[in-house]
Design goal:
- This protein has 102 residues and is an alpha+beta fold.
- It has one domain.
- The protein contains 2 helices and 7 strands, in the order E-E-E-H-E-E-E-E-H.
- The chain is globular and about 35 Å long.
Length: 102
């Protein structure tokens, strides 16, 4: 039986990111009710490098070997989050989004 490798999970203000660092792949799903169930159905995406800054809440996912495609995000912190200012991550309805767009 092959050993089970741990996965790295990072919650940003908007999404839950799960990294399979041994296989260089990740899954990302928007936060909200049922995030764990939706995560199972989310497809794995390849990545080249993952940089997690130990001195801040930032992390960068380098998508290709040349480093020209990247995703950058921040960890969501429980309580008052410095990035989103929310007391907790909230899910927005399509109506809320339409109202915000004006």
């Amino acid at each position: 039986m092959a050993p089970v490798l741990p996965l790295l999970s990072i919650d940003s203000c908007h999404s839950r990111w799960v990294f399979d660092t041994a296989r260089h792949r990740y899954r990302r799903v928007p936060q909200g009710p049922g995030v764990a169930a939706r995560l199972v159905d989310a497809p794995w995406q390849p990545y080249s490098e993952l940089h997690v800054d130990p001195d801040s809440d930032t992390f960068v996912v380098v998508l290709n070997a040349t480093g020209t495609r990247m995703l950058r995000s921040w960890r969501h912190r429980q309580g008052r989050c410095a990035q989103c200012g929310a007391l907790q991550t909230e899910e927005l309805s399509s109506r809320d989004i339409a109202l915000a767009e004006g």
